[in-house]
Amino acid sequence: MILEVRTYRLKPGSDAEFIRLFRDEALPLLAELAIGVVAFGLSLATEDGQRDAYLVRSFASLEDREQQENEFYGSRAWREGPREAILALIEDFHTVVLDADELGMPA
Question: Can you give the pLDDT at residue 39?
Fold first, then answer.
């Protein structure tokens, strides 16, 4: 199993709207494509007075991750749906991809 951890540096004052949009509009789209969402929310810690958001997703393999992400980000539902509103709230993001088997996590 592959885990993908994304962190989002949000624009000041946008956390509540980001969470609402992501929860109400992006998460259902991810579920439609059977992309496993392990966790999603706001960091407990702040940096420079800002809280980052995070998204942890699971995939069967790197190939599945690539295929499912291409389907998601290329979909009309994402492009014509919440994409612009969500991206407008993000200053920057980072992605880390981990092999869960190497972490000793159960499959």
Answer: 96
